[in-house]
Amino acid sequence: MIPFTKMQGLGNDFVVIGTRDLTAIDAGRELLRHWKDRYSRFARAVCDRRFGIGADGLIVMVDFRDQPELREMFAYPDVSQSDVGWIYLNGDGSKSDMCGNGLRCAALWARNHFAVYDTRFTIATARGKSEIIYKSANEITINLGEPVLDAKSVPVKTKAKQFVNAPLNFSDLKATCVSMGNPHCVIFDAPPDAKLLGPSDSDDPAARFPSNYASYAPQIQSLDIFPEGVNVEFALIESESRVRLYVWERGCGATLACATGAAATVVAGVLEKKLARKVTVNLLGGSLDVEWSEKDNCVRLTGPANETFSGNFELSSMLDDVMTRGQREAICS
User: Fold this and answer.
1) What is the DSSP-derived secondary structure letter of residue 75?
2) Span 6-47, pLDDT tens digits
3) Average pLDDT, the chain
4) 105 is a domain residue
5) What CATH number corresponds to the domain at position 227?
6) Model confidence at 331: pLDDT above 60
7) Which of 101, 108, 110 is nearest to 82 (CA)?
8) Angle value at C-alpha 276, between 245 and 246, nearest 5 degrees
9) Shortest CA distance to 62 belongs to which of 47, 43, 82?
10) What gap in Å lies between CA 11 and CA 331, rounded to an integer?
11) Is residue 206 located within the same domain as residue 257?
12) Same domain, yes or no: 175 and 195
């Protein structure tokens, strides 16, 4: 049995497991040895809300102080300078270099399960080491690094170097595209329909979306200009330091909160001269404080994280959904 922790940041929920528990059993060691071939289907199985545990994403944590041999598996920038590392996977099995809500959960998990009690520490990520400032479970600050504005690197197809307040060629909408380790398409002040898809107090984030946003988002994600898909943000400015945000995530659909989306929105707002560099972003799941520093060009984000429950799952049964018959026989032999 593999222990897991269910966590959430503003309603964005995750299953968190540790590599130490995986390496304690044969099936777990086999999974890690063949990680590149199996991670996607494994994440989908774990995150399935009907047949798995259920989550928006899967987080795998490693304590390099305890398992230094796993540094090679991660192969992240600056991995040698971090005591703790993570792998983040979307619920649909796709990779993402960053997830802000997930990273805050990872920071809290490291404190509770790895005994990382320093108020400042770093977590190795695919974007490099991220500095964590821990004050309490309700106030965790993470450094998301510098935003990527180069259009080819976001990526978004355009002849321009950057995609800033540019036409989408869809419903007369304009957008700014930013990567925070994952691609974002930020649209300001598109008038929302008064009609929602469902009750305003629903736990389903899609039900709380204006109906036109819910219609636009999947169509925007399917545009040819986004070769790797895109997260879509609809931002309604309340003041230069406050914005209301609806996020339709790549791989998840409507979500209660997306921290990298909040960060991308502040960056886009500064580029379009609509927002200050320090902004409170109100999402369906709660609020995040975001700052894009002029000093080092990094985006820092502060918000809560919470452990909701824990349990155990039978890894061999979960692997039944991610392996061929031949692979299962190899593990059992």
Assistant:
1) -
2) 999 999 999 999 999 999 999 999 999 999 999 999 999 999
3) 92
4) yes
5) 3.10.310.10
6) no
7) 110
8) 5
9) 82
10) 37
11) yes
12) yes
Contact 331, 30 (CB under 8 A): yes
Report yes or no: 143 and 292 within 8 Å, Cβ to Cβ. Answer: no
Assess whether 227 and 135 both reside in one domain: no
What residue numbers bound the domain in which 40 lies?
A: 2-145+307-332
Separation of alpha carbons 209 and 196, rounded Å: 6
Specify if 302 maps to a domain. Answer: no
Tokens describing residue 192: 């929302």
> Does residue 323 surpass a pLDDT of 70?
no
pLDDT in tens, 176-213: 999 999 999 999 999 999 888 888 888 888 899 999 99
Percent of the chain's residues with pLDDT above 90: 81
Give the side-chain half-sphere CA count within 13 A for 139: 3
Output the pLDDT for position 199: 81
The verdict on whether 99 is a catalytic residue reads yes
Provide the number of structural domains found in the chain. Answer: 2
pLDDT tens for 104-122 read 999 999 999 999 999 999 9
Instruction: Give the torsion sign (CA, 144, 148, 153, 154).
Output: positive
Instruction: For strands 12-18 and 57-63, give the pairing.
Output: parallel
In sequence order, what DSSP letters do the residues of 106-174 get, joined into one string? HHHHHHHHS----SEEEEEETTEEEEEEEEETTEEEEE--PPB--GGGTT---SSSS-SSEE-SSTT-E
The question of whether 258 is a catalytic residue gets the answer yes
Catalytic hit among 99, 177, 185, 252: 99
Contacts of 205 (CB under 8 A, 6+ apart): 11, 254, 255, 256, 284, 285
Both 132 and 200 in a single domain?
Answer: no
Asked if the model's pLDDT at residue 241 lies above 60, the reply is yes
Work out the burial of residue 72: count CB atoms within 10 Å of its CB; fewer than 13 is exposed, 13-18 middle, 19 or more buried. exposed
Catalytic residue among 47, 105, 252, 258: 258
Give me the amino acid identity at 159: K
Percent of all residues in the chain with a pLDDT value above 70, rounded to a whole number: 96
